[in-house]
């Protein structure tokens, strides 16, 4: 049975660094108990909230005069310490323990409580945490329980799912978790995954290497890659993860790792869901990209992905305009410039499943097909390897999707497109 482990640097490198306990003052504790730790009027637990502009976006939303919808963020981890003063009023008592198969999701370690604290810190009180325990007191678990946890989260209305956990199943041989993530994305949930803390290519970490999740690595306050943080072509964004102040059982501690970077993305997604609950993962990913500060090489790079998300200038009075779906049929009017008779159907070349639009299932089908095609001109060169880095990655797939989605062709039903 494949194993997964939580991803704090403390667990990944226990001999290299240790946690630093930071006790809050009595005044700060009083604010915490009143729910003020995630309130822009009183400040935030840690530096990541302001670094990403989540404080300003939260302030805009809370002052908008709108009734903010409940947004649910499922945290699949070691559970949540229910008595923690900093999380009172921020979690739903609907969680479940898949380690022991009962409703006691109380955190008997600390990792899950830290992750929940980061999300609470970066969001308004309308964002509620759904704690789902899939890791034991040692921070270990298995993919089967994680898959069950995802389905449980979906059945309980999760809008965002945070997975600060990792395994070594490079080839995705454990298909139940693949299927669960695919189901989550298809149901408009945003799935955020930590890249891992092995100081190596995240391509070898699962589910960080999945092409239908948002994979996050960590940086410090200077936007430099965090200690032991993984990198590579599967990284989407690089977010605060070093020396993050987060709650444990009763006090707050400084901890580091991609485990703490991922919930920063989950918090950002939850705020965007607060703005527009209908946003799906692809749309939120695009907004993240549009508001990303480039940290490494120009554009996407294999260290920081698209860079640091900064939503400080996000306009909540704007309206998200979705791409227009291609018509199911060509116009009935004939023109001399039409390549064939106008009565023939109009297709988008990337619409592999023929449902009238290019979506995640199309990309999956296209990727699986192209990944098997080897060019005749160059030995072992895969046709889907757009950037010629000898691997078919999420970057290649995204470029292929963009290209195919823009090609419209006329074709007669039942006949080959190409002769």
Provide a quick synopsis of the model.
The chain is α/β, with parallel strands linked by helices.
Could you please describe the fold and organization of this structure?
This protein has 419 residues and is of the alpha/beta class. The protein folds into two domains: 3-309, Rossmann fold, CATH 3.40.50; 323-419, no CATH class. The protein has eleven helices and 17 strands. The strands form five sheets. A seven-stranded parallel β-sheet has the order 4-5-3-7-9-10-11, with helices on both faces. The model is unreliable at 8-37, 334-345 and 375-379 (pLDDT under 50).
What is the topology?
Elements: E1 3-6, H1 9-12, E2 20-22, H2 26-33, H3 48-51, H4 54-62, E3 71-77, E4 96-97, H5 111-121, E5 127-133, E6 140-142, H6 143-155, E7 160-163, E8 165-166, H7 175-186, E9 190-194, E10 214-219, E11 237-240, E12 244-247, E13 252-255, H8 258-275, H9 281-290, E14 292-293, E15 308-309, E16 346-348, H10 360-370, H11 394-405, E17 408-410
Parallel strand pairs: 3-5, 3-7, 4-5, 7-9, 9-10, 10-11
Antiparallel strand pairs: 1-6, 1-8, 2-13, 12-13, 14-15, 16-17
Helix pairs in contact: 4-8, 5-8, 6-7
| Total number of distinct structural domains | 2
Let me know the average pLDDT. Answer: 80
The poorly predicted ranges are 8-37, 334-345, 375-379
Question: How do the SSEs run, as a string of H and E?
Answer: EHEHHHEEHEEHEEHEEEEEHHEEEHHE
């Amino acid at each position: 049975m494949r194993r997964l482990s939580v991803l704090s640097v403390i667990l990944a490198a226990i001999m290299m660094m240790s946690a630093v306990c930071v006790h809050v003052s009595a005044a700060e504790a009083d604010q915490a108990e009143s729910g003020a730790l995630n309130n822009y009027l009183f400040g935030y637990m840690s530096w990541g909230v302001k670094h990403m502009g989540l404080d300003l976006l939260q302030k805009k939303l809370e002052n908008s005069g709108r009734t903010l919808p409940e947004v649910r963020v499922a945290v699949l981890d070691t559970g949540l310490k229910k008595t923690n003063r900093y999380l009172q009023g921020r979690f739903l008592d609907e969680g479940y323990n898949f380690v022991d198969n009962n409703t006691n999701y109380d955190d008997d370690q600390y990792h899950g409580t830290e992750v929940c604290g980061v999300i609470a810190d970066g969001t308004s009180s309308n964002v509620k945490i759904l704690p789902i325990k899939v890791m034991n007191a040692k921070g270990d678990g298995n993919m089967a329980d994680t898959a069950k946890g995802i389905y449980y989260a979906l059945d309980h209305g999760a809008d965002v799912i945070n997975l600060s956990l990792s395994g070594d199943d490079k080839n995705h041989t454990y298909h139940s978790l693949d299927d669960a993530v695919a189901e989550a994305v298809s149901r408009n949930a945003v799935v955020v995954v930590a890249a891992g803390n092995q100081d190596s290519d995240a391509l070898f970490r699962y589910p960080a290497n999945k092409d239908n999740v948002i994979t996050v690595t960590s940086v410090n306050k200077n936007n430099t890659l965090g200690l032991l943080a993984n990198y590579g072509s599967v990284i989407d964004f690089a977010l605060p993860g070093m020396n993050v102040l987060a709650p444990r059982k009763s006090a707050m501690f400084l901890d580091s790792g991609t485990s703490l970077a991922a919930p920063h993305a989950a918090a950002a997604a939850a705020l965007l869901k607060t703005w527009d609950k209908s946003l799906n993962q692809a749309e939120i990913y695009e907004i993240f990209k549009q508001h990303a500060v480039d940290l490494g090489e120009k554009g996407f790079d294999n260290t920081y992905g698209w860079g640091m998300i900064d939503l400080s200038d996000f306009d909540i009075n704007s309206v998200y305009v979705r791409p227009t779906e291609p018509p199911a049929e060509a116009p009935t009017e004939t023109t001399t410039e039409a390549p064939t008779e106008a009565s023939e159907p109009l297709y988008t070349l990337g619409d592999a499943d023929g449902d009238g639009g290019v979506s995640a299932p199309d990309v999956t089908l296209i990727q699986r097909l192209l990944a098997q095609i080897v060019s005749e001109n160059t030995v072992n060169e895969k046709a889907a390897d757009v950037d010629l880095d000898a691997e078919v990655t999420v970057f290649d797939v995204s470029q292929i999707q963009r290209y195919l989605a823009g090609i419209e062709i006329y074709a007669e039903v039942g006949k080959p497109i190409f002769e």
